[in-house]
Amino acid sequence: MSMTDLLKAEEIKKALEAFAGETFDPKKFFELVGMKAMSAETVKKVFQVLDVDGSGFIEEEELKFVLKGFSSEGRDLTDSETSAFLKAADKDGDGKIGIDEFEVMVHE
Questions:
Q1: Residues 49, 23 contacting (CB under 8 angstroms)
Q2: Which of 60, 61, 65, 90 has the fewest CB atoms nearer than 10 Å to its CB?
Q3: Which SMART domains does this chain map to (predicted)?
Q4: Is the pLDDT confidence value at 1 over 90?
Q5: With 90 as the cut, is the pLDDT of residue 22 above it?
Q6: Is 92 annotated as ligand-binding?
Protein backbone atom coordinates (compact mmCIF):
# COMPACT_ATOMS: atom_id res chain seq x y z
CA MET A 1 0.00 0.00 0.00
CA SER A 2 1.30 3.46 -0.83
CA MET A 3 0.55 6.77 0.82
CA THR A 4 -1.44 7.97 -2.20
CA ASP A 5 -3.82 5.03 -1.67
CA LEU A 6 -4.73 6.67 1.65
CA LEU A 7 -4.23 10.40 1.07
CA LYS A 8 -4.72 12.81 -1.83
CA ALA A 9 -1.48 13.53 -3.70
CA GLU A 10 -2.32 17.25 -3.99
CA GLU A 11 -2.80 17.57 -0.21
CA ILE A 12 0.50 15.79 0.42
CA LYS A 13 2.25 18.15 -2.00
CA LYS A 14 0.74 21.26 -0.35
CA ALA A 15 1.69 20.05 3.13
CA LEU A 16 5.27 19.27 2.06
CA GLU A 17 5.56 22.71 0.45
CA ALA A 18 4.27 24.36 3.64
CA PHE A 19 7.21 22.91 5.58
CA ALA A 20 9.88 23.11 2.88
CA GLY A 21 11.67 25.97 4.57
CA GLU A 22 9.84 26.10 7.87
CA THR A 23 10.26 24.15 11.10
CA PHE A 24 8.26 20.93 10.86
CA ASP A 25 5.13 20.75 13.01
CA PRO A 26 3.74 17.20 12.89
CA LYS A 27 0.26 18.08 14.16
CA LYS A 28 -0.14 20.86 11.59
CA PHE A 29 1.27 18.60 8.85
CA PHE A 30 -1.18 15.79 9.68
CA GLU A 31 -4.02 18.30 9.55
CA LEU A 32 -2.87 19.67 6.16
CA VAL A 33 -2.74 16.20 4.59
CA GLY A 34 -6.24 15.44 5.85
CA MET A 35 -5.34 12.87 8.50
CA LYS A 36 -7.06 14.67 11.39
CA ALA A 37 -10.43 13.97 9.73
CA MET A 38 -9.63 10.27 9.10
CA SER A 39 -10.86 7.33 11.10
CA ALA A 40 -8.47 5.77 13.62
CA GLU A 41 -8.31 2.70 11.37
CA THR A 42 -7.12 4.72 8.37
CA VAL A 43 -4.58 6.64 10.47
CA LYS A 44 -3.19 3.27 11.58
CA LYS A 45 -2.79 2.27 7.91
CA VAL A 46 -0.75 5.45 7.36
CA PHE A 47 1.36 4.45 10.37
CA GLN A 48 2.02 1.04 8.80
CA VAL A 49 3.32 2.71 5.62
CA LEU A 50 5.66 4.91 7.71
CA ASP A 51 6.86 1.94 9.82
CA VAL A 52 9.43 1.00 7.20
CA ASP A 53 10.95 -1.95 9.09
CA GLY A 54 7.55 -3.35 10.15
CA SER A 55 8.52 -3.39 13.84
CA GLY A 56 5.21 -1.91 15.00
CA PHE A 57 7.01 1.27 16.01
CA ILE A 58 8.41 4.34 14.29
CA GLU A 59 11.91 4.63 15.69
CA GLU A 60 14.03 7.78 15.63
CA GLU A 61 15.91 6.62 12.50
CA GLU A 62 12.61 6.20 10.61
CA LEU A 63 11.24 9.47 11.98
CA LYS A 64 14.06 11.49 10.38
CA PHE A 65 12.77 10.34 6.96
CA VAL A 66 9.04 10.50 7.77
CA LEU A 67 8.27 13.09 5.06
CA LYS A 68 9.78 10.79 2.43
CA GLY A 69 7.15 8.26 3.54
CA PHE A 70 4.52 10.68 2.27
CA SER A 71 6.37 11.52 -0.97
CA SER A 72 9.82 10.86 -2.43
CA GLU A 73 10.06 14.66 -2.73
CA GLY A 74 9.81 15.10 1.05
CA ARG A 75 12.84 16.49 2.85
CA ASP A 76 14.68 14.88 5.77
CA LEU A 77 13.81 16.27 9.19
CA THR A 78 16.61 18.01 11.05
CA ASP A 79 17.90 16.41 14.25
CA SER A 80 16.04 18.99 16.34
CA GLU A 81 12.79 18.45 14.41
CA THR A 82 13.16 14.69 14.82
CA SER A 83 13.76 15.04 18.57
CA ALA A 84 10.80 17.41 18.99
CA PHE A 85 8.49 15.08 17.03
CA LEU A 86 9.59 12.07 19.10
CA LYS A 87 9.18 13.98 22.36
CA ALA A 88 5.68 15.14 21.39
CA ALA A 89 4.43 11.69 20.36
CA ASP A 90 6.30 9.27 22.65
CA LYS A 91 3.95 9.30 25.63
CA ASP A 92 5.40 6.23 27.38
CA GLY A 93 9.04 7.38 27.06
CA ASP A 94 10.36 4.25 25.34
CA GLY A 95 12.17 6.23 22.64
CA LYS A 96 9.86 5.23 19.79
CA ILE A 97 6.32 5.93 18.59
CA GLY A 98 3.80 3.12 18.81
CA ILE A 99 0.70 2.88 16.64
CA ASP A 100 -1.62 4.08 19.42
CA GLU A 101 0.68 7.01 20.29
CA PHE A 102 0.70 7.99 16.61
CA GLU A 103 -3.10 7.86 16.36
CA VAL A 104 -3.47 10.00 19.51
CA MET A 105 -1.04 12.60 18.15
CA VAL A 106 -2.90 12.85 14.83
CA HIS A 107 -6.28 13.34 16.50
CA GLU A 108 -5.17 15.66 19.36
A1: no
A2: 61
A3: EFh
A4: no
A5: no
A6: yes
**Cα Rg for the chain, rounded, in angstroms?**
12
H or E element, residue 98: strand 96-98
Model pLDDT, residue 43: 97
CA–CA separation, 108 vs 95, rounded Å? 20
Query: Is 96 marked as binding a ligand?
Result: yes
Consult the annotation and say whether 55 binds a ligand: yes
Ligand-binding site membership of 57 (annotated): yes
27 known ligand binder: no
For the entire predicted model, the pTM comes to 0.92
pLDDT digits (tens, 9 = 90+) for 59-89: 999 999 999 999 999 999 999 999 999 999 9
Nearest 10 degrees: CA dihedral of 82, 53, 6, 3?
A: 70
Q: Cα–Cα–Cα angle for 36, 38, 42, nearest 5°?
A: 125
Residue 41, annotated as binding a ligand: no
Question: Are 74 and 68 in contact, with CB atoms under 8 Å apart?
Answer: yes
Q: Is 64 annotated as a binding residue?
A: no
Q: Is 28 annotated as a binding residue?
A: no
